[in-house]
Description:
By secondary structure, this protein is α+β, with helices and mostly antiparallel strands. The protein folds into two domains: about 1-85, GTP cyclohydrolase I, N-terminal domain (GTP Cyclohydrolase I, Chain A, domain 1), CATH 1.10.286; about 90-230, GTP cyclohydrolase I, C-terminal domain/NADPH-dependent 7-cyano-7-deazaguanine reductase, N-terminal domain (GTP Cyclohydrolase I, domain 2, 2-Layer Sandwich). It contains nine helices and seven strands. It has helices at about 1-15, 30-50, 65-80, 80-85, 140-150, 155-170, 185-190, 210, 215-230; strands at about 90-95, 100-115, 120-130, 135, 155, 175-185, 200-205. Strand 2 (about 100-115) and strand 3 form a beta hairpin.
Amino acid sequence: MTMALKKSHLGVAGDTVPPCLCNEATPSPLNAAERSLMRFAAAQKIGELFEVLGIDYLNDHNTRDTPARVAKMYVEEIMRGRFNAPPVVTEFDNVGQSDQLIVTGPIDVRSTCAHHLMPIYGSAYIGVLPAADGKIIGLSKYDRIVDHFSARLQIQEELVKQIGAFIMERTKPRGLAVRISAVHMCKSQRGVRASHASRMVTTEFYGDMLTDKTTRGEFLQECALLDRNA
Ligand SMILES: [Zn+2]
Protein backbone atom coordinates (compact mmCIF):
# COMPACT_ATOMS: atom_id res chain seq x y z
CA MET A 1 0.00 0.00 0.00
CA THR A 2 2.77 2.40 0.96
CA MET A 3 4.70 1.48 -2.18
CA ALA A 4 1.64 2.12 -4.36
CA LEU A 5 1.18 5.54 -2.77
CA LYS A 6 4.80 6.44 -3.33
CA LYS A 7 4.69 5.23 -6.93
CA SER A 8 1.60 7.21 -7.81
CA HIS A 9 3.13 10.27 -6.21
CA LEU A 10 6.36 9.89 -8.16
CA GLY A 11 4.33 9.40 -11.33
CA VAL A 12 2.89 12.89 -10.91
CA ALA A 13 6.30 14.42 -10.20
CA GLY A 14 7.79 12.54 -13.16
CA ASP A 15 5.09 13.82 -15.50
CA THR A 16 5.74 17.37 -14.37
CA VAL A 17 9.49 17.29 -14.85
CA PRO A 18 11.00 15.17 -17.61
CA PRO A 19 14.62 14.31 -16.80
CA CYS A 20 17.38 16.23 -18.58
CA LEU A 21 21.09 16.89 -18.04
CA CYS A 22 22.04 18.18 -14.58
CA ASN A 23 23.14 21.62 -15.81
CA GLU A 24 20.34 22.03 -18.34
CA ALA A 25 17.11 23.89 -17.63
CA THR A 26 13.85 21.96 -17.52
CA PRO A 27 11.91 22.40 -20.83
CA SER A 28 9.77 25.08 -19.21
CA PRO A 29 10.08 26.93 -15.88
CA LEU A 30 8.31 25.32 -12.91
CA ASN A 31 5.58 27.15 -11.02
CA ALA A 32 5.28 27.14 -7.22
CA ALA A 33 2.90 24.13 -7.20
CA GLU A 34 5.24 22.05 -9.38
CA ARG A 35 8.23 22.95 -7.21
CA SER A 36 6.26 22.08 -4.10
CA LEU A 37 5.45 18.65 -5.56
CA MET A 38 9.11 18.15 -6.38
CA ARG A 39 10.15 19.15 -2.86
CA PHE A 40 7.73 16.67 -1.34
CA ALA A 41 8.96 13.79 -3.53
CA ALA A 42 12.63 14.73 -2.94
CA ALA A 43 12.14 14.87 0.86
CA GLN A 44 10.74 11.31 0.81
CA LYS A 45 13.79 10.09 -1.11
CA ILE A 46 16.24 11.88 1.20
CA GLY A 47 14.46 10.25 4.15
CA GLU A 48 14.99 6.88 2.46
CA LEU A 49 18.66 7.71 1.96
CA PHE A 50 18.98 8.40 5.71
CA GLU A 51 17.36 5.03 6.42
CA VAL A 52 19.91 3.33 4.14
CA LEU A 53 22.71 5.14 5.99
CA GLY A 54 21.35 3.95 9.35
CA ILE A 55 20.09 7.33 10.55
CA ASP A 56 16.83 7.18 12.52
CA TYR A 57 15.80 10.63 11.31
CA LEU A 58 12.20 10.28 12.49
CA ASN A 59 13.37 10.01 16.12
CA ASP A 60 16.54 12.10 15.91
CA HIS A 61 16.07 15.68 17.13
CA ASN A 62 18.94 16.83 14.90
CA THR A 63 17.85 15.33 11.59
CA ARG A 64 14.07 15.07 12.01
CA ASP A 65 13.39 17.92 9.59
CA THR A 66 16.53 17.52 7.51
CA PRO A 67 14.97 15.63 4.54
CA ALA A 68 12.42 18.43 4.00
CA ARG A 69 15.07 21.09 4.66
CA VAL A 70 17.54 19.59 2.17
CA ALA A 71 14.81 19.03 -0.44
CA LYS A 72 13.86 22.71 -0.15
CA MET A 73 17.52 23.73 -0.45
CA TYR A 74 18.00 21.65 -3.63
CA VAL A 75 14.82 22.84 -5.36
CA GLU A 76 14.70 26.49 -4.27
CA GLU A 77 18.39 27.32 -3.97
CA ILE A 78 21.11 24.97 -5.22
CA MET A 79 19.32 23.86 -8.45
CA ARG A 80 17.04 26.91 -8.74
CA GLY A 81 18.62 27.96 -12.05
CA ARG A 82 17.24 24.84 -13.78
CA PHE A 83 13.66 25.57 -12.80
CA ASN A 84 13.51 29.35 -13.25
CA ALA A 85 13.50 31.35 -16.49
CA PRO A 86 16.83 32.99 -17.37
CA PRO A 87 17.23 36.66 -16.34
CA VAL A 88 15.61 39.22 -18.61
CA VAL A 89 18.39 41.13 -20.33
CA THR A 90 17.39 44.73 -21.00
CA GLU A 91 19.37 46.15 -23.88
CA PHE A 92 20.26 49.79 -24.51
CA ASP A 93 21.43 51.32 -27.75
CA ASN A 94 25.17 51.89 -27.72
CA VAL A 95 24.66 55.63 -28.18
CA GLY A 96 28.26 56.58 -27.43
CA GLN A 97 29.40 53.88 -29.91
CA SER A 98 31.75 52.52 -27.24
CA ASP A 99 33.95 49.78 -28.68
CA GLN A 100 36.61 49.54 -25.96
CA LEU A 101 37.03 46.70 -23.48
CA ILE A 102 34.70 46.71 -20.45
CA VAL A 103 35.68 44.40 -17.57
CA THR A 104 33.41 43.59 -14.64
CA GLY A 105 34.21 41.53 -11.56
CA PRO A 106 34.73 39.91 -9.21
CA ILE A 107 31.21 38.48 -9.44
CA ASP A 108 30.51 35.91 -6.70
CA VAL A 109 30.17 32.34 -7.94
CA ARG A 110 28.22 29.91 -5.75
CA SER A 111 27.70 26.59 -7.45
CA THR A 112 27.66 22.86 -6.76
CA CYS A 113 29.91 20.16 -8.16
CA ALA A 114 28.00 17.70 -10.34
CA HIS A 115 30.40 14.89 -9.44
CA HIS A 116 30.24 15.09 -5.63
CA LEU A 117 27.41 17.52 -4.75
CA MET A 118 29.96 19.69 -2.91
CA PRO A 119 30.15 23.51 -3.08
CA ILE A 120 32.14 25.36 -5.71
CA TYR A 121 32.78 29.00 -4.77
CA GLY A 122 34.86 31.79 -6.21
CA SER A 123 34.78 34.71 -8.60
CA ALA A 124 33.83 35.39 -12.20
CA TYR A 125 35.21 38.13 -14.44
CA ILE A 126 33.59 39.17 -17.68
CA GLY A 127 35.22 41.23 -20.42
CA VAL A 128 33.08 42.67 -23.20
CA LEU A 129 34.12 44.33 -26.44
CA PRO A 130 30.86 46.02 -27.46
CA ALA A 131 29.95 46.35 -31.13
CA ALA A 132 29.89 50.10 -31.93
CA ASP A 133 26.58 49.67 -33.77
CA GLY A 134 25.25 47.02 -31.35
CA LYS A 135 23.58 46.93 -27.95
CA ILE A 136 24.87 47.21 -24.38
CA ILE A 137 23.32 45.79 -21.21
CA GLY A 138 23.25 46.96 -17.59
CA LEU A 139 26.27 45.82 -15.55
CA SER A 140 24.15 44.07 -12.90
CA LYS A 141 22.83 41.72 -15.59
CA TYR A 142 26.19 39.96 -15.74
CA ASP A 143 25.89 39.14 -12.01
CA ARG A 144 22.40 37.75 -12.58
CA ILE A 145 23.53 35.64 -15.55
CA VAL A 146 26.44 34.16 -13.54
CA ASP A 147 24.07 33.39 -10.66
CA HIS A 148 21.49 31.77 -12.97
CA PHE A 149 23.90 29.29 -14.53
CA SER A 150 25.71 28.64 -11.22
CA ALA A 151 22.47 27.59 -9.51
CA ARG A 152 22.57 23.98 -10.70
CA LEU A 153 24.93 21.01 -10.56
CA GLN A 154 27.92 22.08 -12.59
CA ILE A 155 31.44 21.43 -13.67
CA GLN A 156 33.41 24.65 -13.99
CA GLU A 157 34.41 24.17 -17.64
CA GLU A 158 30.77 23.92 -18.73
CA LEU A 159 29.62 26.74 -16.42
CA VAL A 160 32.02 29.17 -18.13
CA LYS A 161 30.80 28.08 -21.59
CA GLN A 162 27.11 28.37 -20.65
CA ILE A 163 27.61 31.93 -19.36
CA GLY A 164 29.61 32.86 -22.48
CA ALA A 165 27.13 31.34 -24.95
CA PHE A 166 24.20 33.11 -23.27
CA ILE A 167 25.88 36.55 -23.33
CA MET A 168 27.02 36.07 -26.96
CA GLU A 169 23.56 35.01 -28.08
CA ARG A 170 21.64 37.74 -26.23
CA THR A 171 23.94 40.75 -26.71
CA LYS A 172 26.07 39.91 -29.78
CA PRO A 173 29.22 41.79 -28.71
CA ARG A 174 32.28 42.10 -30.97
CA GLY A 175 34.25 40.04 -28.46
CA LEU A 176 33.79 38.42 -25.05
CA ALA A 177 35.85 36.82 -22.30
CA VAL A 178 34.51 34.84 -19.34
CA ARG A 179 36.87 33.75 -16.57
CA ILE A 180 36.09 31.87 -13.37
CA SER A 181 38.51 31.25 -10.52
CA ALA A 182 36.98 28.94 -7.92
CA VAL A 183 37.58 26.62 -4.99
CA HIS A 184 36.13 23.11 -5.33
CA MET A 185 35.28 21.67 -1.94
CA CYS A 186 35.22 18.16 -3.41
CA LYS A 187 38.99 18.61 -3.63
CA SER A 188 39.60 20.48 -0.34
CA GLN A 189 37.13 18.82 2.05
CA ARG A 190 37.65 15.24 0.87
CA GLY A 191 39.74 13.28 -1.65
CA VAL A 192 43.25 14.75 -1.75
CA ARG A 193 42.23 17.37 0.87
CA ALA A 194 43.87 20.16 -1.08
CA SER A 195 44.48 23.58 0.47
CA HIS A 196 41.39 25.79 0.71
CA ALA A 197 43.41 28.33 -1.25
CA SER A 198 43.77 25.94 -4.21
CA ARG A 199 41.73 27.25 -7.12
CA MET A 200 40.77 26.20 -10.60
CA VAL A 201 40.83 28.88 -13.30
CA THR A 202 38.99 28.53 -16.60
CA THR A 203 38.75 31.20 -19.31
CA GLU A 204 36.78 31.23 -22.57
CA PHE A 205 37.21 33.80 -25.33
CA TYR A 206 34.72 34.59 -28.09
CA GLY A 207 34.65 36.69 -31.27
CA ASP A 208 37.49 39.19 -31.68
CA MET A 209 38.88 38.27 -28.28
CA LEU A 210 39.77 34.83 -29.63
CA THR A 211 42.34 36.37 -31.98
CA ASP A 212 43.23 39.78 -30.53
CA LYS A 213 46.19 39.05 -28.25
CA THR A 214 46.42 42.65 -27.01
CA THR A 215 42.82 42.73 -25.76
CA ARG A 216 43.21 39.28 -24.22
CA GLY A 217 46.26 40.53 -22.33
CA GLU A 218 44.40 43.66 -21.22
CA PHE A 219 41.52 41.50 -19.91
CA LEU A 220 43.81 39.18 -17.95
CA GLN A 221 45.68 42.16 -16.47
CA GLU A 222 42.39 43.78 -15.37
CA CYS A 223 41.32 40.44 -13.79
CA ALA A 224 44.56 40.30 -11.79
CA LEU A 225 44.08 43.90 -10.61
CA LEU A 226 40.43 43.37 -9.67
CA ASP A 227 41.35 40.12 -7.86
CA ARG A 228 44.09 41.86 -5.88
CA ASN A 229 41.78 44.69 -4.81
CA ALA A 230 38.89 42.37 -3.88
ZN1 LIG B 1 33.65 17.35 -7.50
